[in-house]
Amino acid sequence: WLDDSCWVDYAPNWLGGSDALFAELADSLPWRQREVTMYERRLPEPRLTCWWDGSDPAITPPALLTDVRTAMTQRYRRPFDTIGFNLYRDGHDSVAWHGDRERFRDEDPVVVIVSLGSARQFMLRPRGGGRSTAFRAGHGDLLVMGGACQHRWEHCVPKTARAEGPRLSVMFRHNLLSATA
Q: What digits encode the pLDDT tens for the residues 101-111?
């Protein structure tokens, strides 16, 4: 528990075969670099992304991710219907402090992350600042944020001077398809 209404499940080395899955996804997904607004300028986002929602037949997650999605749906009783992929190529790639968009739509969203490749810091802190909690996520680690976590806490993957290698974050999200239908 992060506080009285926010929790994180963390299971190191949860997914076997994660290195092979990392290689398959890194080589096969149609990666793109989005632009984000920072400091009143449009800049390339410092990571690569890909999104799966079943609408693009060119993007087909490996069977292992379908199994993970099914297991997470059963475990957390949420219909995980989309998968986001973020590739952090080196220590220069990052994502700033933020809460996921699900907080605007769901009272207590659950976000499941399977971290592949080299470990990187994944940090959480109370919204607006305060003492952070850090996880070293990589090599098949499972990290799940739930309760009011997206409302009351922020998370980031900070830049680092030395990254062991690339990291791929696989995020399972729920109710996104029904929200756009």
A: 776 566 789 99
